[in-house]
Amino acid sequence: MMGETLRPEARMWGLPGRSYDGISFGLSDTISHTVQALWPRPGERILDIGTGTGWAARLAAWRGASVTGVDIAPGMLEAAEALSAGFVPRPVFQQAAAEELPFRDKSFDGVISTYGVIFSREPSRAVAEMARVLRPGGRLALATWADEPDGYIARFFTLVGEWSDGPPPPASPFDWGHSSWLNAIVGERFKIDIREQVTTLYAPDVATVWNEYVTGFGPVAATYAALPQDQRDGFRAAFEDFHRPFASSLGLVVPRLALVVRGVRL
């Protein structure tokens, strides 16, 4: 996987390192519910794809499972290792891409991915790999962003894209937010159930959200770092203006529509 460290997206996602854990904190309601959807059992072998700083992996390990977390970004894996110290059983982390999992067939009892596999370069291949490494009857649980063109997440990524000169992803992560796509692509190898869930970000103010994202979220951090100095204030102002409508009398309340997908390997 040494070549994978050179992927631009691997560098981008890994840039924040441990600070990404703050982003996972803001998504912790759906991460927790997706782990519940998988319901890891003591001694089960669980794979967490796109583990980031290991939030879902640690929850699964807390349930007694033997967990392996994979990610393309060394910066994420280093943070996951440090944050998982002291867990028993302690998750194991290694570098790998969802499209090329370095595990034998039928190696796992469960596979989980919370907003990770949706950024795969080749979604169909990633689905095939998840099915390959799962035993027959093994369980799948995914958190994906629902495809809402006018929703917060789509508009958020549009905003970042307007300030970034990076190329668009080779495959849209929002494909995973279509029930029809999930039934056609994931449903070919899994019996699945799809449920909507609103994952809500609560924060004191727009400045706090900006600080969390510019230090902790790869696409925002990389975009800000690449901008000329005279444009950075404009990016921050646009980001904060985007979040102001979510203000309440006691702080920000940002609802984001997600899907929780449960599956059983056919």
Question: Overview of this structure, please?
Answer:
The two termini are 30 Å apart. With 266 residues, the protein is α/β, with parallel strands linked by helices. Strands 1, 2, 3, 4, 5, 6, 7 and 8 form an 8-stranded mixed β-sheet that branches. The relative contact order is 0.16. α9 packs across α10 and α9 crosses α11. It has 11 helices and 8 strands.
Q: What would you say about this model in short?
A:
The chain is an alpha/beta fold and 266 residues long.
What distinguishing features does this structure have?
266 residues; 8-stranded mixed beta sheet; Rossmann fold; single chain; alpha/beta; 24% strand; disordered N terminus
Helical fraction equals 40-55%
Shape: globular
- Write down the domain tally: 1
Would you tell me the structural class of the helices and strands?
A: alpha/beta
CATH superfamily: Vaccinia Virus protein VP39
List the helices and strands and how they pair.
Layout: H1 8-14, H2 21-26, H3 28-38, E1 45-49, H4 55-62, E2 66-71, H5 74-83, E3 92-95, E4 108-114, H6 123-133, E5 134-145, H7 152-163, H8 179-186, E6 190-203, H9 206-216, H10 218-226, H11 229-243, E7 247-248, E8 251-265
Parallel strand pairs: 1-2, 1-4, 2-3, 4-5
Antiparallel strand pairs: 5-8, 6-8, 7-8
Helix pairs in contact: 1-5, 3-4, 7-11, 9-10, 9-11
